[in-house]
Amino acid sequence: MLQIASAQEMRGCDDQAITGYGIPGIVLMENAARGTADAMAEYIPGLTSKHILIVCGKGNNGGDGFAIARHLIERGAAVTVASLSPVSQIKGDARVNADIIQKMSRTESSGALSFVKSITRQKLKQISKPDIIVDALLGTGFKGKLKPKVASIVEWMNKQSAIRVAVDIPSGIDADTGRSEGVTVQADYTCTMGLIKTGLLFSPGCDAAGKIVRIDIQIPPEVFRRSGIKTFLVQEPAIRSVMPKRMLDVHKYRVGKVFVLAGSTGLTGAAALTSMSALRSGAGAVVLGIPAGLNLMMEKKLTEVMTLPLTDNGSGVLLAHAWEQIKQQCEWADVIAAGPGLSRSGDIKEIIIRLLEEIQKPIVLDADGINVLAGNVMLFNKRNAPVIVTPHTGEFSRLSGIDPSDINKDRISHAREFAKKHRITLLLKGGPTIVASKHGNLYINETGNPGMATAGAGDVLTGVIAGLWAQGLTDEIAAYCGAYIHGAAGDKAKERYGEFAMTAGDIQEELLKVLRGITG
Length: 520
Fold this sequence. Notes:
This protein is of the alpha/beta class. The chain folds into two domains: 2-228, 3-Layer(aba) Sandwich (Rossmann fold), CATH 3.40.50.10260; 236-243 and 255-519, UDP-N-acetylmuramoyl-L-alanine:D-glutamate ligase (3-Layer(aba) Sandwich). It has helices at 7-21, 25-43, 60-74, 92-107, 121-125, 148-159, 205-209, 221-225, 236-242, 268-280, 295-301, 323-332, 348-358, 368-371, 378-381, 393-400, 404-409, 411-422, 457-470, 475-497, 504-519; strands spanning 2-5, 51-56, 78-83, 113-116, 132-136, 163-167, 189-193, 196-197, 211-215, 231-234, 257-261, 285-291, 306-310, 335-338, 363-365, 387-389, 425-428, 434-436, 442-445. It has a twelve-stranded mixed β-sheet with strand order 8-1-10-19-18-17-16-15-14-11-12-13, with helices on both faces. The protein has a seven-stranded parallel β-sheet with strand order 4-3-2-5-6-7-9, with helices on one face.
C-alpha cells in the first residue's frame, strides 16, 4: 500500500536520507529536477519546441525550479527563469542551482535561456508568451494566505493559456490538508517528490493539482519503511491481497452471517439497500430486522434476504419491547449492521445504546445509529468487541461535537484522533472517504466520484462493509476494502449512467462487476 506523507513527514525522510545515508541534499534536488524534466517530456508532446517559463521562489522549491531549467535546456527547450528574489537572498542548495543558472544566462549564446530576477507581475507581462509555466514558488512548507505580490503573480500565471506544471505542490495549497485561503496555482500536472503529500488528495488541493506524478528522488526504500508514516492510499492490489477466499467445502453459515437492523416508515429503501449489499459483497446469510408493520412489504421486495418482524409502535418505528428479539438475532450473527433508516424517534436511542452495552459482537453503525449517540460516545470505550462507525461530516459533527467547518479543515487529524481516543474504526465519508483505525493508521480511498452524493449510497456502503467483515476480515481491513469497492462500483455506475443520473441502486448493481474483477 502506498504511503502518503505530511510535509513534516517528508522532511523527516529527506533528513534521514541526508544524515543517515550521507546523500547530499543537492543530490536529492538534482534527482527531483531530472525526474520532473523526464515527466514533462513524457506527458507534454513536443516539449523541446516549447517556450517554458519557470517561476522560482527562494527556498528549496525554487532550487528545484532552477535545476529543472538546466535539464530542460539540455533537452533543447527555450527557457525563461523568473526568480521571485535577488540571487543574493537565496541560500543553501537552492543558491547553488541559482548561481549555475545565473552563470549560464551570461554565457548562453543560443538564446535558449533568459534569467529575470526580482519578478513582479508587470515584469512577467513583458516576457514572451510561454507555452508551459512551471510553478516552483513555494513548496510544501507553505501555510496560510499568499502575500499580495505572490498572489498577483499566481493570478497572472493562471490567466495564461499555457500548460501549468507545479513542483511538489501547487503554490497556495497547504500540503497537509489541501486547504487554500485564497488564490492558488491551477496546475495541469503536479510533480511531487518522494511520497505523495496528503494535501494533494483533498479538495481544493486535488482540484488544483491536476494529474499527480510521483517523482522518485532516490531516497532508500528503507527510509520510508522505518519512517513511522501511518497514512496510506488504498489501491486495488492491496484490496486483492486481503479479500476472503472460499474453501470448496464451505456452506452459507460459514461465509458470514449478518443481522441488519434498519428501516422505518418512509425509509424502507435504506433497509433493502443495506441488506442486499451485504449479500452482494459475499455474506452467506443476511437477516433484516424490520418494524413489524413493514415486514410484508420487505418480504415482497427482498427475495434472498430473510426478514424478522420486530415489535413496533404501529407507525413503523421500532419499540424498545423488541429488544429480546433483537438480542436473540444478534447472538446468531457474526456482524450486526445497525442504523440505516431507523429514524431518531421513539425508542431508537435506547435500542442502540443497549446494542453497544450488551452485545459483544462486531457492529457497523451508520445513519440514525450514529445520530442517536450524540453525548454517549464513551460507550465505545467500554466495549470489548469492535465497532465501525460510518458518518458523513454532519453526522461526525453531531457525534464528536466538532464544528463541521473545523472537521473539513483537517479531516485526517480529526478522524485519526477520534478513532484512537474511542478505540473504534471510523470511516468518514467525503471526497475522498477516509478510514481511521484505533491503532492510528489512516487510509485514503482513491475510488468514488461526486455522483455518489445520492440518497442510499451510504446504505450500500454499510452493507458492503458488514458483508466483508462477516467473512473474517478485521474491522480495519473491512472498512477500507468496503470503501474501495463501494467507490469503484460508483465509478462504474458513473461510466454507465453519468454523475447526474446515477442512483444507489446503480452502485449496488455494479458491485458484481467490481468484485468479479478483484476476486476473479
